[in-house]
Amino acid sequence: MSGPTPTMLPVTRGVRRAVWSYWSRPFEVHHHQGWVSRKHHLLAWILSVHTARQHYPETSLVTDEAGAAMLVDGLGLPFDQVSTELETLEGADADWWVLGKLHAYRAQETPFVHLDTDVFLWKRLPRAMEMAPVLAQNPEHFPFVGSWYRPEAFDVAVQATQGWLPTEWIWYVSQRRGEALCCGVFGGNDIGFINHYADSAIRFIKHPLNQTAWDLIGFKIGDNILFEQYFLSACIAYHAYHETSPFYGVYAHCLFGSDADAYTPAKAEAAGYTHLIGGAKRDVALANKLETRVARDYSQDYRRCLEYLCRTEAAPQVQPDRETP
Amino acid sequence: MRIPDSSEHMIAGQLAYSRYFARQLVTAADLNADQTYFRELVRRHNRYLHGCGVVCGLEVLLGEDDDGHPQVVVTPGQAISPQGDDIHVPEQQAIPMDEVEECIGPNQERRLYIVLRYTETPLCPVPTLPGPCMPTAGLQFSRLQAGFALACIVELPSACGEEPACGDLTCELLRDAASPDAPPPDTATCASAVCPDHGADPWVVLAALDLDAHGAVSAIDYGVRRRVLSVQFLIEALRCLLPRVTAIAPSYGVQGTRMLALVHGERLADARDVRFEEGVIARIVSQPQDGGWILIQMDIADDAALGPQGFQVITPRGIANSVACGVQFTVLPGLAGYGYGYGYRPYGAYGDYATSGIGGNLL
């Protein structure tokens, strides 16, 4: 005797969607300085979206009205979904540029991979990453004391001003842990956890009791990664450790196993992954290669980009290489 | 046989010590001269550098003897006499109340003073050899034992002098110039304008006893007691009075950044400033009334000196020097590109891949 034939449920697990986010105000206030020119910023958008959508045909953009006007109306990038949820950040401190990303993370309801504008996926992410609760670019290890991350300084600032600290942060900092997760790509399948992490990070930044600390710290643009990358690592470590957590057992699968792997050209090539991290965005040779690549592979988008720039601002600042069409 | 009196042990004038030479006939006078010289040095040192009064212990208490009779008890302790003699009381002493009441004079004073003095007791008599001036053998004490005597008296001794007013002391400490026409310092109030008197009065006052109509002690007054504070006591007192830094958190900062830090310590209340070395500017943000910590905002210049450095907390109670307390703040190297606004690791940390990013060659 046989029982009823089991229903074959559709396989919903696994990352099938690529997401980008763009909060226009931080870019206008300071982030544009990170690129050789505004044109190259737009060219990166073109290349990032078009390379990723070859592997993840479902694409989403979380932005504000100005961002949608630039990326969708101006460049004509082919997103399947466009959300202007970041309009809710009107009035927020643009120094907290990471709020745009965190809001985008929190808004996701199905597995996803979020890509930074300066990330180009030449290959699809490994299947294990796509199936993981959380995915990220690579772990970053740093000395707890005297690093580009400075959790202790923020911890003291908040405590001294009677601010609010998330449980995961308190637990992680008390162990003086010096590990973060670089989020050039970030996402995963455990939407509940990601929502909790992003929501906690947003609350951490926006909490009224913490504003005194932030005001006193002053320049904090470089510290955004503390709330995105360091706090992400704290959340994963905390919930992976505590059996009573609803996210017990959560883990992150990274594209690279270490900082060193990520910066090893052969390994980046094997992974089919480019991230114009940090100063790479201001490197003229790379900027020219970026322009050449976009002009060659996505000529219509390239032309649309130039037209958009002509309509909206002065001429491009860097001339492409000779072979550029 | 003559017994020396403690009144002989007053601080003397000119001092001389023996000078020995070959084939010298050394007499008792020569040897005693040396003792006298060094003992007088100690007395002067005690009296002029430390003062006169109770150093420690010598508490005056009320108790009962084994038969239940009331008595005044003096605990062990140490004092310096008005003449500079060390007075050591090794064990608890008791004065029967009967003896105390006998101190009451014909005027029926109700206030008595328990006092202490230095004594010397001759010991160990030995026969002397006959000589031209002493044809028959006699006895001489070969030792003098330092001791003490307790008594109660009705007149307050003044050998240790009056305590100057605190205001006078302060002005005197800070006095660094005076007009030629200015009158000489008032020796009655300026403690160091003249050397302290060391008159014939040998007593150190331990306490005053107030007796009621029935002869029972109604109060023990220590206000009449002069004290000689030991260096250890003064150090403890300073430790309890002066501001002190115990920690700073975080104990490090990076060139070219702004940060908050908590300076932990004791008696830091009402701090006016926190001063670091060149390149680090601190501003006090908040501090509680109890003086337990100060929240400071620090701006570390791009070219601030690297490495550990001390800092000072300036308070109305004095200046707390962090280095003296074993606390330092360390300035770490500036991170090239840090704070440029992109939230990424400084380029320097990427080594050779600073400009190529990750997989830049794939473009």
SSE series of chain A: EHHEHEHEEHEHHEHHHEHHEHH
Strand content of chain B: 25-35%
Largest sheet features of chain A: 7 strands, mixed
Q: What is the alpha-carbon Rg of chain B in Å?
A: 34 Å
The major sheet of chain B is characterized as: 4 strands, antiparallel
**H/I helix tally of chain B:** 4
Write the layout of secondary structure elements.
The complex is a heterodimer of chains A (325) and B (363).
Chain A: E1 17-22, H1 24-29, H2 38-53, E2 58-63, H3 65-74, E3 81-83, H4 98-107, E4 112-115, E5 119-121, H5 127-131, E6 134-141, H6 151-160, H7 167-174, E7 179-188, H8 191-206, H9 211-217, H10 224-241, E8 252-254, H11 259-262, H12 265-271, E9 273-275, H13 284-297, H14 299-312
Parallel strand pairs in A: 1-2, 1-4, 2-3, 6-8
Antiparallel strand pairs in A: 4-7, 5-9, 6-7
Helix pairs in contact in A: 2-13, 2-14, 4-8, 6-9, 7-10, 8-10, 13-14
Chain B: H1 28-50, E1 53-57, E2 60-64, E3 70-74, E4 77-80, E5 86-89, E6 93-96, H2 97-102, E7 111-127, E8 139-153, H3 166-174, E9 204-211, E10 217-221, H4 231-241, E11 244-249, E12 252-254, E13 258-266, E14 273-275, E15 280-286, E16 293-300, E17 307-309, E18 312-315, E19 318-321, E20 329-332
Parallel strand pairs in B: 12-20
Antiparallel strand pairs in B: 1-4, 2-3, 3-6, 4-5, 7-8, 7-9, 9-10, 11-13, 13-16, 14-18, 15-16, 17-20, 18-19
